[in-house]
From TrEMBL:
Positions of the UniProt region annotated as Disordered: 1-42
Reactions accelerated catalytically: L-cysteine + L-glutamate + ATP = gamma-L-glutamyl-L-cysteine + ADP + phosphate + H(+)
HAMAP family, per the entry: Glu_cys_ligase_2
Alphabetic keyword roster: ATP-binding, Ligase, Nucleotide-binding
GO molecular function: glutamate-cysteine ligase activity
Signal peptide span: none
Top-rank lineage group of the source organism: Bacteria
Family matches, as InterPro entries: GCL_type2/YbdK_subfam, GCS2, Gln_synth/guanido_kin_cat_dom, YbdK
Protein name: Putative glutamate--cysteine ligase 2
EC numbers: 6.3.2.2
Biological function: ATP-dependent carboxylate-amine ligase which exhibits weak glutamate--cysteine ligase activity.
Length: 413
């Protein structure tokens, strides 16, 4: 089970489930868990493991407001899923995490079981499960989960906290060791704004359209340590930066390192944590496959002696802002072409073309090709929300559409 290095200030670890859910159609080793010290490349066929964490909002079905119901929902979760479900920072949030594995079909099966089981548990508790970046409907702010660490966070950082909850998706991909992992982080920097745009799923907040595709990104950046990953010279440099941020008081500990990509503190993985939680399984699987292909491509470049591109921090920050604002439906910063603006879809297609060898090597190309075409046809989560709202100018339609997608059907329509 992946560590819950989550979008919230929490750093709790997901407990081991009582038994691994068997995932039909998986390659050998798909359901095996990584433990500290495992070599994620030692799988017999040199493929990379991938695992996913997703955070969800609990809402009142009558009002659409964020509902402080996590304890009631946890009480309804089936025993076989309990080890893969946990609390988040606010009582209106809940999180799932998959075992790391090699096969996208197995990952989809695992996520489908978890989403459906959690949606059933939420309904049994009188609320609904919604895969959305933050609460679309205005209402009282749910309290924070009763936890001494969270109390310390609130005391230190004060008014950055209040919101209905910010719900993200985190992708873990295995790497051989921390030194190589740091080089991978450098290689990933220019590509992450496009994945940020592709996951945009929170245009509405407090009853109105914010003008952003990902308002969660704006809320999340109130935490002082949220930022694009800096250019890193070595693993020692990475550790020194972490120590300096803790010494300044910006972070309480390493668990508060909220860079858009980082090394996991608990597992031999890089963790990519830029995106809103995706509304459908199709979206999640697409992003997981692209992230794995990015890491694989980075490892290939590193082995060949090809260095990453040291994109200036200000340009990288601008690219992430643009991604949060426009999603894929607008413009994006062309970091590979000097920083000009281009249609976001044009740049994403170019990136996927570059990732083709890695996608082929993992057997993911056909799935990614189909899901990418589907995403372009139906739009990002933000675009789908706006389309649902346009029917009657009613956020109830937005939530109804999100609830249907959240259940794991994979249907964008």
């Amino acid at each position: 089970m992946l560590a819950a290095d989550a979008e919230s200030p929490g750093t709790g670890e997901l407990a081991e489930p009582p038994g691994t859910v068997e995932l039909p159609g998986a390659r050998s080793g798909t359901a095996d868990r990584l433990t500290a010290g495992d070599d994620p490349l030692s799988t017999g066929n040199d493929l990379l493991t991938v695992g996913v964490e997703e955070e969800f909002l609990l809402v009142d079905p009558a009002t659409g407001e964020a509902a402080p119901a996590v304890e009631a929902v946890l009480a309804e979760v089936p025993d076989e899923l309990r080890g893969q479900v946990q609390r988040e920072f606010q009582t209106s949030q809940i999180e799932i995490g998959t075992p790391p594995g090699l096969d996208l079909a197995a990952l989809r099966h695992s996520l489908g079981l978890l989403r459906t089981g959690l949606a059933d548990a939420a309904e049994a508790a009188g609320v609904r499960l919604v895969a959305v970046g933050t609460g679309p409907v205005a209402g009282p702010m749910p309290p924070v989960v009763d936890n001494p660490r969270f109390d310390q966070m609130i005391e230190r950082y004060g008014l950055v906290v209040p919101s209905p909850g910010v719900n993200g998706m985190h992708i873990h991909v295995g790497v051989p060791d921390p030194e190589i992992g740091v080089q991978v982080l450098n290689h990933l920097r220019p590509a992450l704004p496009l994945l940020h745009a592709a996951t945009a799923n929170s245009p509405f907040y407090a009853g109105r359209d914010t003008g952003y595709a990902s308002w969660r990104s704006v809320l999340w950046e109130r935490w002082p340590s949220v930022a694009p990953t800096p250019w890193l010279e070595s693993h020692a440099h990475y550790e020194r930066l972490v120590e300096e941020l803790i010494d300044t008081g910006m972070m309480l500990d390493e668990g508060m390192l909220y860079w858009y990509a980082r090394l996991s503190a608990n597992y031999p993985t890089v963790e990519i944590r830029i995106g809103d939680v995706c509304p459908s399984l199709d979206d999640t699987i697409l992003i997981a496959a692209l992230v794995r292909a990015l890491v694989d491509t980075a490892l290939t470049d590193i082995a060949a002696g090809r260095a990453g591109v040291p994109v200036p921090h200000h340009l990288l920050a601008a690219a992430h802002w643009r991604a949060a604002h426009d999603g894929l439906e607008g413009l994006a910063v062309d970091l590979a072409g000097g920083g000009g603006l281009r249609p976001a879809w044009q740049l994403l297609r170019r990136l996927v073309s570059r990732l083709r060898p890695a996608l082929e090597r993992h057997g993911d190309l056909a799935v990614v090709t189909a899901l990418l075409s589907r995403l372009q046809a139906h739009g990002t989560g933000a675009a789908r929300q706006r389309a649902a709202y346009a029917r009657r100018q009613d956020l109830a339609d937005v939530l109804e559409d999100l609830m249907r997608q959240t259940r794991g059907t994979g249907d964008h329509g």
